[in-house]
Amino acid sequence: MADGFLETHREQYEQRKALWLKQKRSYTYMHRQTNQNHTDSKE
To answer: For the whole model, what pTM was predicted?
Structure first.
C-alpha cells in the first residue's frame, strides 16, 4: 500500500515540477526580451 502511495505522489510531484520549470523558463525568456527592448529604446 505504501508503495502505491509513494509512486502516486512521486508522479504528481514530477508533473508539478515539469510545469514549474516550463513556466520558469518561459518567464526568464520573456523577462530577457523585455529588458532588451528597454535597453534598445534608450539608445
So the answer is: 0.51
